[in-house]
Design goal:
Order of helices and strands: EHEEE
Number of strands: 4
Radius of gyration: 13 Å
Largest sheet: 4 strands, antiparallel
Mean pLDDT: 94
Shape: elongated
C-alpha cells in the first residue's frame, strides 16, 4: 500500500452500563487533542453504550505511525478497545 493513500483509523469501545454519554464525551475530547489534524473525523454511537471514532489521514501508508486515541480508564469501559485500519478506495 502506497504513501499516497488515505488511511482510515477506527476506534471502538463499549462503556460500562449507563456511562455511554461519558464515554462519548471522553472520546470527543481525546480526538480533539490528537497531534496533527485528520482530513475528516466522525464520532458515532450505537446501542449498548458503544462509541466509534473514525479519522481519515491522507497521504499515509498502512503501516505509518498515525495518531490514535488511547485506552480509556478501565472503569469506563467493559472490554479492551477495538482498533482497525483501512485504506480508503474510490
Amino acid at each position: 500500500m502506497s504513501g499516497d493513500a488515505t488511511i482510515v483509523l477506527m476506534w471502538e469501545a463499549r462503556a460500562t452500563e449507563g456511562r455511554g454519554a461519558e464515554l462519548l464525551e471522553w472520546a470527543r475530547a481525546r480526538s480533539a487533542e490528537l497531534p496533527g489534524e485528520p482530513a475528516r473525523r466522525e464520532l458515532l454511537r450505537a446501542p449498548q453504550d458503544r462509541v466509534l471514532v473514525m479519522t481519515w489521514w491522507p497521504n499515509a501508508s498502512y503501516g505509518d505511525d498515525l495518531p490514535e486515541l488511547p485506552e480509556p480508564d478501565a472503569g469506563l469501559i467493559t472490554r479492551a478497545v477495538h482498533r482497525w485500519r483501512f485504506e480508503a478506495v474510490g
